[in-house]
Every structure is written in C-alpha cells, then in structure tokens.
Automatic annotation (TrEMBL):
<dbReference type="InterPro" id="IPR046346">
    <property type="entry name" value="Aminoacid_DH-like_N_sf"/>
</dbReference>
<dbReference type="InterPro" id="IPR020630">
    <property type="entry name" value="THF_DH/CycHdrlase_cat_dom"/>
</dbReference>
<dbReference type="Pfam" id="PF00763">
    <property type="entry name" value="THF_DHG_CYH"/>
</dbReference>
<feature type="domain" description="Tetrahydrofolate dehydrogenase/cyclohydrolase catalytic">
    <location>
        <begin position="20"/>
        <end position="125"/>
    </location>
</feature>
<dbReference type="InterPro" id="IPR035812">
    <property type="entry name" value="m-THF_DH_NAD-bd"/>
</dbReference>
<dbReference type="GO" id="GO:0004487">
    <property type="term" value="F:methylenetetrahydrofolate dehydrogenase (NAD+) activity"/>
</dbReference>
<protein>
    <submittedName>
        <fullName>Methylenetetrahydrofolate dehydrogenase [NAD(+)]</fullName>
        <ecNumber>1.5.1.15</ecNumber>
    </submittedName>
</protein>
<dbReference type="InterPro" id="IPR020631">
    <property type="entry name" value="THF_DH/CycHdrlase_NAD-bd_dom"/>
</dbReference>
<dbReference type="Pfam" id="PF02882">
    <property type="entry name" value="THF_DHG_CYH_C"/>
</dbReference>
<keyword id="KW-0560">Oxidoreductase</keyword>
<feature type="domain" description="Tetrahydrofolate dehydrogenase/cyclohydrolase NAD(P)-binding">
    <location>
        <begin position="153"/>
        <end position="212"/>
    </location>
</feature>
<keyword id="KW-0554">One-carbon metabolism</keyword>
<dbReference type="InterPro" id="IPR036291">
    <property type="entry name" value="NAD(P)-bd_dom_sf"/>
</dbReference>
<dbReference type="InterPro" id="IPR000672">
    <property type="entry name" value="THF_DH/CycHdrlase"/>
</dbReference>
Amino acid sequence: MGSSSLPLNSIAMACQVVNAAKVATAFINEVRAAIDASAASPLLVGFLANDDPAARKYAEWTARTCQETGIRFELRECPRTELEDRIVDANEDPAVNGIMVYYPVFGGPQDQYIQNTISFSKDVEGLCHKYRYNMYHNIRFLDKAETQKCIIPCTPLAVVKILEFIGVYNSILPYGNRLHGRVITIVNRSEVVGRPLACLLANDGAKVFSVDEFGIMEFHRGEGIKLKKHEVFETKVTLAEALAKSDVVITGVPSPNYKLDTSLLKDGVIAINFSTFKNIDHDAIKEKASIFVPSIGKVTVAMLERNLLRLQAYQASQSA
Ligand SMILES: NC(=O)C1=CN([C@@H]2O[C@H](COP(=O)(O)OP(=O)(O)OC[C@H]3O[C@@H](n4cnc5c(N)ncnc54)[C@H](O)[C@@H]3O)[C@@H](O)[C@H]2O)C=CC1
Ligand SMILES: Nc1nc(=O)c2c([nH]1)NC[C@@H]1CN(c3ccc(C(=O)N[C@@H](CCC(=O)O)C(=O)O)cc3)C=[N+]21
C-alpha cells in the first residue's frame, strides 16, 4: 500500500478524455472506401429554411465533412413557405439519394409534419414515422429476410457507437442484450435525441433514467430483461438517486446555464455531453469520471453519411 511508484500526474489524469473524432475515424474511413469502390457518389440534399445560426453552422459543417468523404452535398435554401414543395421535388428526383431538413423550421407539430413529408427511402436522419415506430417497437429490419436494417436517428445512434467504442456494451453478451446490467441517466427527453436514445439503450438491455426539467421516467425491459422491447414507467426517483445508481450519464441540455452537479455522480462514472453547451464542467468531471466524452458531433455526421450509403444501396436494390 505505502509508497506508490505512480508519478503524481498519472494519478491526477486517471480520467480518459475521449475525443469524438477518434470514434468517427473508423466509420468515415469505411464510408470513404465504399464510395471509392462504387460507380456513383451518393447525393445528399439539405434544406435550410430558417435563420437559426446553429442550423446554418451544422449545415456548413455537414457540407465540409461530406466533401472530405467524397459525398456530393447540395444545400438548398428556400423560404419556409416553399419547403414542402421542394421536398416533394427531391422525393421524386431519382438523382437524390438522401434528404435532410435543418430544424427548427416552424417549430412544434408542423416540423413533425415536415419530417413525415420526406420519403422514408430518402430519410437520412431516420425521423419519419416509419423509422420511429420501428425503433420504439424494436423492429430492426425493413424486410422479412432481414437484409435491410432500419435507419436510426443520427445523434442517438452516435451515442450508441460511442458507448460501443468505450466498452459500455459488453460484447460477451448476445447482440441486443449487451447493456444488461448497465444503469444510464440521460438528461434530455427531446423527440430527436433524448427519447429515442432512452429507447435504444433500454432495448439493448440497459435500465435508463430519462430526465427533463419536469421529472424522471424509467425505460427498461424489466428484471432479467424478460420483455422483448423496452417499456416506460413513471417513477418517483430523484435526480440524486438516479445519478447515485448510474454507470453512465449523458447530458443534452440546450442552455449555457445548466451544469450537472458532479458531486452526485458515482466514482468512475462514464460521462458524455452532446449539448452544444458545456453541461459538464471539464475540471470537476475529471475528478470523478473514468471516461469523459465532451462532445459527439463528429460521430453524428459519420452516422449521417453511413445512413446515406445504406439508403443508396436500398434504392439500388429496389430499381434492380
Ligand atoms: N452533437 C450532436 O450531434 C447534436 C447536438 N444537439 C444539441 O443538443 C442539445 C439539445 O438538442 P435537442 O434535444 O434538439 O433540444 P430540445 O430543446 O428539443 O430538447 C431539450 C431537452 O432538454 C430538456 N431540458 C431542458 N432544460 C432542462 C433542465 N434544466 N434539466 C433537465 N432537462 C432539461 C428538455 O425538457 C428537453 O427534453 C442542443 O444544444 C443541440 O444543439 C442536437 C442534435 C445533434
Ligand atoms: N435536422 C437537423 N438535425 C440536426 O442534427 C440538427 C438540426 N437539424 N438543426 C441544428 C442542430 C444543431 N446541431 C449540432 C450538431 C452538432 C454540434 C456539435 O457537437 N459540434 C461540435 C463540433 C463542431 C466542429 O467540429 O466544427 C462542437 O460544437 O464541439 C452542434 C450542433 C445539429 N442540429
């Protein structure tokens, strides 16, 4: 016990900070290799119909990453009143392989309508009803022969890939059960990230505490993961109780003022932030966490590109 041969700084650096770029590289290389080997580079069309600076930044960033990977990307800007007709044109144009719309456009339920206007065969973000329904019902394939995987929303999928990369998924367990025994808190329950993410992780066997500013819900497959798909339960658990049990905490609060109270976390926790804001203090978390992932954007875009290649392949098999 007494004297340790470890230099002091390696004790202080016990927390591993994992850069999203490191996780994204393997996927980006796969996408690039597939494009290099194929006759036609896929075409992704992005519609920008708002003045939101975060949306424009994300659009510019999609453009840059696509160019680096050899994907053709076309940003189509239009007034929001014309958006629906422009989407229909792109749906019907066989030259277009994937479509995405930068949100928010109208905000609220009308944006959900727009999500459903994109043809499922071109929906790279997996936000239309068919993919969402399949995800919530743990239906993983589009066809009976199980050759075509369903499209999963990019940001939740990026979190799954990061959890696989850092070993939260236990590869000794069978596919579909690899999170059995893990307890995960997600601070965000939006329709595009937090709720689908809670569902995916619970379908894979985790017990998930899904937190928003109004309360907490539990997503899981019951004791011994006997249920085929996750169920959602009301709970009286507090944030402090949830965090005290959690092996992983994932934050996505869209506010510069929100800071996760790291004193509530388990020692050796794994912490991931997907918000554009620093929901987790970088110094404080390094005292507590075994692994910290400060942002995930690069993996999200890699998943977008991967989804696009899938859709292109499905389209080719349809027209063959
Ligand atoms: N890295 C990436 O790939 C992506 C990052 N983002 C970022 O993630 C953040 C969230 O995006 P969305 O989910 O689309 O936002 P949203 O506004 O639709 O949802 C925010 C969620 O956080 C919850 N929330 C707000 N304040 C809270 C609080 N004090 N405590 C607990 N929960 C609270 C809300 O109830 C809601 O569930 C944004 O900063 C966005 O830019 C979004 C998409 C992709
Ligand atoms: N249909 C749709 N899908 C979206 O995914 C979507 C959208 N609309 N509208 C706008 C928001 C915003 N958004 C961000 C994604 C990543 C970072 C992110 O993590 N960026 C990194 C890296 C930035 C870089 O490397 O340049 C960072 O800030 O550290 C931020 C914001 C996605 N959005």
